[in-house]
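Tokens for chain A. Residues wanted.
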């Protein structure tokens, strides 16, 4: 027959295609995981906001009024002083 090469069992009779597919799926999955891991790591230059900074930001954004700000500020200051007294 023209165009017939061997007995059709080349490269493990099609099993090689399965292994190659698994290889590429694993390689692409590893790449996606690596990119996700690198982008979700905690940035050491990025610090968590303190309660006072959050309160200041909310006042500046207009989320709370000055009365709510003053009340929350007193609570934060009292809590900070309570923590200092227990230590």
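Reply:
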């Amino acid at each position: 027959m023209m165009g017939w090469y061997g007995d059709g069992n080349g490269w493990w009779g099609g099993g090689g295609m399965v292994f190659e597919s698994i290889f590429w799926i694993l390689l692409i999955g590893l790449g996606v995981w690596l990119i996700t891991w690198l982008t979700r790591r905690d940035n050491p230059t990025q610090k968590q906001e303190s309660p006072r900074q959050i309160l200041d930001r909310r006042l500046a954004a207009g989320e709370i009024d000055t009365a709510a700000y003053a009340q929350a500020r007193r609570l934060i200051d009292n809590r900070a002083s309570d923590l200092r007294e227990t230590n």
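The radius of gyration is 31 Å. The CA atoms of residues 1 and 80 lie 89 Å apart.
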